[in-house]
Amino acid sequence: MAGSPRRSAGRRLQLPLLCLLLQGATAILFAVFVRYNRETDAALWHWGNHSDADNEFYFRYPSFQDVHVMIFVGFGFLMVFLQRYGFGSVGFTFLLAAFALQWSTLIQGFFHSFSGGYILVGVESMINADFCAGAVLISFGAILGKTGPVQLLLMALLEVVLFGLNEFVLLSLLEVKDAGGSMTIHTFGAYFGLILSRVLYRPQLEKSKHRQGSVYHSDLFAMIGTIFLWIFWPSFNSAPTALGDGQHRTALNTYYSLTASTLSTFALSALVGGDGRLDMVHVQNAALAGGVIVGTSAEMMLTPFGALAAGFLAGAISTLGYKFLTPILESKLKVQDTCGVHNLHGMPGVLGALLGVLVAGLATHEAYGDGLESVFPLIAEGQRSATSQAVHQLFGLFVTLTFASVGGGLGGLLLRLPILDSPPDAQCYEDQIYWEVPGEHELLAQGSEETETQA
Amino acid sequence: MAGSPRRSAGRRLQLPLLCLLLQGATAILFAVFVRYNRETDAALWHWGNHSDADNEFYFRYPSFQDVHVMIFVGFGFLMVFLQRYGFGSVGFTFLLAAFALQWSTLIQGFFHSFSGGYILVGVESMINADFCAGAVLISFGAILGKTGPVQLLLMALLEVVLFGLNEFVLLSLLEVKDAGGSMTIHTFGAYFGLILSRVLYRPQLEKSKHRQGSVYHSDLFAMIGTIFLWIFWPSFNSAPTALGDGQHRTALNTYYSLTASTLSTFALSALVGGDGRLDMVHVQNAALAGGVIVGTSAEMMLTPFGALAAGFLAGAISTLGYKFLTPILESKLKVQDTCGVHNLHGMPGVLGALLGVLVAGLATHEAYGDGLESVFPLIAEGQRSATSQAVHQLFGLFVTLTFASVGGGLGGLLLRLPILDSPPDAQCYEDQIYWEVPGEHELLAQGSEETETQA
Amino acid sequence: MAGSPRRSAGRRLQLPLLCLLLQGATAILFAVFVRYNRETDAALWHWGNHSDADNEFYFRYPSFQDVHVMIFVGFGFLMVFLQRYGFGSVGFTFLLAAFALQWSTLIQGFFHSFSGGYILVGVESMINADFCAGAVLISFGAILGKTGPVQLLLMALLEVVLFGLNEFVLLSLLEVKDAGGSMTIHTFGAYFGLILSRVLYRPQLEKSKHRQGSVYHSDLFAMIGTIFLWIFWPSFNSAPTALGDGQHRTALNTYYSLTASTLSTFALSALVGGDGRLDMVHVQNAALAGGVIVGTSAEMMLTPFGALAAGFLAGAISTLGYKFLTPILESKLKVQDTCGVHNLHGMPGVLGALLGVLVAGLATHEAYGDGLESVFPLIAEGQRSATSQAVHQLFGLFVTLTFASVGGGLGGLLLRLPILDSPPDAQCYEDQIYWEVPGEHELLAQGSEETETQA
Questions:
Q1: Quick one: fold of A61-420?
Q2: Which residues lie closer than 8 Å to C50 by C-beta, 6 or more apart?
Q3: What is the ipTM of this complex?
Q4: pLDDT tens per residue, range C273-317
Q5: pTM of the full predicted structure?
Q6: What is known about its subunit structure (chains A, B, C) (predicted)?
Q7: In whole angstroms, what is the distance from residue C403 CA to residue C399 CA?
């Protein structure tokens, strides 16, 4: 404990008071605004003539649970790779996401399901709130280990609002398609976090360099996160799409894309690795890029081949990004990206948006038949040409990058407030500053320091 | 191995013989009594005119699988926090739950689905059996590390019977509502285990004190349990409710409640922690209390705000219980509660029962409309007023506490039989007495003992 | 790193080039042959008059996701028990399965869903591909730690073809029933791997003996695999069966069988263990044999008692196999079976096939009613007697054993090609040869070597 100085009472009280304040505020807003929707309200559901089997619950709840696993187990454990930041990774994921679910229920509710003065909630609002939490956790990945929980909650407070606004502009005003969130979740979350990390740049971060790596078992814990993300990504992309062939095709395309990103990740990782060795960082992250890159287009008639090709590209670019781009981002652009979210979410997200532009632009009545109404209603109704839809999709990407950049900049300024409890440079990537850590950990830590001294 | 003395042949044979005996007995009872129900029998299902889509399987099996994950992964890994009892935690969970599933299929079957001389089984009996196993595992949590597998199986043998009886009294005789089991599962399991632990009180337990804590990686394994419990709790509470809006609303309320208990847990943990540090014990456990406290009321018209408020209260009380009440329970009341089940299941379970009293008492025809029939059939049919239902709910809590206390006392007397293979005080919380443990563990153990000597 | 010699450039390039070649080849074949089926194609689905709720997605996707968890988390982590091969276990599982999914989509597609010159894909092809990947991973278990990733990919290339051919002969030509794959998956995968391991026999493998065991935390990681396999096995066996009572009954039977194999595993493990101690190897593996043994018969009218009895037998035989047969297999038959797949998949698979023979032979119109058409269509239509069906089932087992043996032999010859990058005897069960391993691992390794020297 010698290494971690005591914090002042003012700093120690920030987390409890902020949690209580945020919870109090959302509770009041829930009391005023949030009501059961037709599918969750006893009186409303039983009014009218329909079968219980028609309840949206049976079409979307299994997908919701898969998404829920991704948010809490997937993101949480993926970040446990850091040798001394496992509690912070999985614990702050838990805290951040729990708050984001409440807060985004309100924000997204105002934008998407506000009716008669009330926000109406059901399984779709649960899925949407989890999606928004996903974006917050992507941003968290960029600043992992370099920020305290109070800073993280404030980031979520801001980011959820901007996420909701950006999503509203894209889905409701521009009417672009982005079921799996290549733009709204991955691009937005990544660039928000990267700009924020840039503003929080720590020139002295090498003081904590020895804690930035993994240890053997922390890499295995991280693989729990990776594998659950990989498995359930088909459910993620398909959770909010049109029912029937829409959900079915989206899941299938995502499944194929992920198998291809896995193969290209292994290929590239061995190709660029020292002595042909595979790198766990690539396997843990780049293999997932296939899910990101089809986030926009998986619900479209991408074709199985298209899914494979997209996934292959995503895994390859992501792996090369970890190997060659991340060091440059830090040294040249002063962006310290702990988890490499630029490689897993940033570049594949932008590519996914562009792939969506391409596939939307190729949409024809012949390929979609009467299903065109579900995927591209404006084209089906003759209000837009496929080309026009493609242009709108492209514009959606620019809007997203703008919201993310401005938001990340604002977030960075907010998180730099000197009053906020932030870890010193020498205590980054270290659980002890925010967590009671059982004794063995210190012993192991001492042990590895001794070893480093010897080496 | 030096530290663990050899057991006599009589003790060594207890576990194999008891397993064989119990398995033989349940197999015979299955042969005599258990039959496929209308939904699982080839002939019965195909007799009559209905669609395969109507089969209960499609409405309940996804929820069942979520519950199944909670029982085996959730409870199993949650208890792995102990540094030298990981095999026992996850292994005995596995054994106990596997037996409890068979045994409770019989016991609950006699009480709930006995027809024409046969117990009829399908997905609902699977869910109910898993629920009963949950109660057994809650009791296991109170005595974790202080009992051998033979004692645990005998406890399950008794507890399953009393669980079934208590459940029958509540659900069938008193006709109270308790879908997620605030009373039948959490209150019953917790107080059964606590009384049992009281009867098994070990005054010399400090001999094993050094093994009662966690190590860094054991805390991360425990978080696997926590997170899977947290994620799937909405499925747990909604698995047995009425279809349609009932399942949907129950899942939604539970989801909100859990987000609030997470925030209050982090707030209180940091508030009462040394130097403002968060405690993994609180995060692993108290954050789940939001699922327990809405176990009775989540299927009712609790309102989203009500769910948040209940969850907040549960997380706060549970965290404070871990900090202040658990030490007093041990020192004053001689209840040694290894996992703190009083904080996670006991108090939140009782509060959940009381919340059920309140929400049932507030039920109106206006709020539930025609859905009142699904939630409170007796009120809908005019046989009971809401107040009367509330009184019945309250009486159900007292019945549960009575069954749990008497059962726990009987269980304790049974488990104190001197013939039973029980770990000595100096070998509690230690895998080596019941498990082949690979070499490294001894080395680590030696290492930490040396360290303790040095300190 | 001193211990792992550098590989030549030719060897280092094998993995990247093979991955790229395989991915390129499958992508081209996908482009030429693979198309959306009626349920995933926008135009085809919306042509005609049916409800979105009728889409196969809602009947099979939740089961598919459970199977998907089993393949990647279940198999992947089950093999992490080796102390220094965690990256290889979970990483090569990931790579192998990702390739097998693509390749078996093509192979199985040619055999089972080839129509109008195209392979038509949807959720059923996803389930089937995952099943085939399961067989490949079973074979992987036999040679775990003794082969490089290039060898493994070549094995998958061959095995998927033979799997598809064997499955085609059984299901389409012989018209035997084998929903959960006692024959097509478990028997085939196990004996393919065992014969292959025999051909790859390494007389000097004791050089790596000290790495063949587990350490404390690797055993806990392995239990993650075990428990997820155990939980979701009911979904595995029921994923491809007839809808309605078929899926429902299959899941129920598997659930009961697994509870019984768990009890018999604990009983036998304690009975044969030193000083009555339980062995993690048994619990991790033999407890799962209940899922294997009902792979053929779970969809039939096995009865709940039949499921218990079968599971009990499987757990017992599997445990005894680990204790007594595995050492003999290695010393007498020169079959080095790293994970003991003969005990978990081989013997229980053959027993499962024979149980299928028995239960099929006992099928009557009375027991199945109009459901006979779903389970045994040829008997229902009068084209076969129950006895004839039983004989066909038995013949299916012999076909499977033949395909597996010949295939495993061919596979072994292929993998012995001297050009292939294979680990030397002294580097088996060791991650460092194929993976960048973080520093702590080397320290631990040194530590345990020192300890061994001292001992």
A1: Ammonium transporter fold (1.10.3430)
A2: none
A3: 0.95
A4: 988 999 999 999 999 999 999 999 999 999 999 999 999 999 999
A5: 0.96
A6: Interacts (via C-terminus) with ANK2 and ANK3; required for targeting to the basolateral membrane.
A7: 6
